[in-house]
Amino acid sequence: MKLLVLKEAKEVSEQKAVGGTEGTTPTVDLFSEFDKFQGLAHLEALEMLSRDSEAKLESRIIDLTEDELNGVKPLLRAVEEVFRVDENDADDDEITEEGDFKSEVLENVKFLNLPFTADKIVTSQERAREWVATCVQEQDDSPGSKDGVEIYTTAVSSLAELTARTVELFHKFTELLLHQAKQAAETSSLVRAQCVRKMTDAVLEEISVLATHFAGCLNTAADDSDNPDSVSSLITTLYLDSSTSADYLRNSLKLLRPVLQLSSLDEKNASRS
Known about the structure:
Blueprint: H1 3-19, H2 30-36, H3 39-62, H4 66-82, H5 98-111, H6 119-141, H7 148-179, H8 189-224, H9 228-254, H10 257-272
Helix pairs in contact: 1-2, 2-7, 3-7, 3-10, 4-8, 4-10, 5-6, 5-8, 6-7, 6-8, 7-8, 7-9, 8-9, 8-10
């Protein structure tokens, strides 16, 4: 992901915030919320570590003999394959249960075998699901009680937080992995790559699920509104925000590839020592 693009998006979002109008037009935007939850700071740090790892990886590969290179190529390719991201990966119609998401994320983070947790990711997801459940109940009990802008604002903030918390975990994961580079690893880099990929796929699916749930609340709000078109337009914007959140996450995931490949070279060296 090019940080210049993100910084330009930040400038645009700030201009929108200044020029926002009162009334039914929401002034919140995904990028500002992502930045508010420190997503940009963690992404910038992650990209720097990724670039540094890429440079070290290339230098190490150049220094390998032909036999050594042939010996590590299968592992490097296996790790690279894990990070091949299909933009349609999270487009399934299947809706996961809240407990499934939590167990999937926590289980895969546990298998990374590093001293950190995914508590922030789980908490942000649970908060979003609880808000949607409350919204649905209130709309059933009192039609028209939920304003479209309120629903949209909460939706964008929820998507941004879940995305930012995941990027934060990527950053911490990378720091810990690089810090223990010279230490014997109990878990292989390939297994770690597979686990972080599975965790990311779970978050990508949850982003899609949350967007669908919030859109359902917006549909109900539109039915109860005196100006349904203004509320319905927010649904389209919400799905675009959901797609952007997924793009942030996919691009962040790709930054882990050189880090895990470099780690796999360290493992090969350790096994020969």
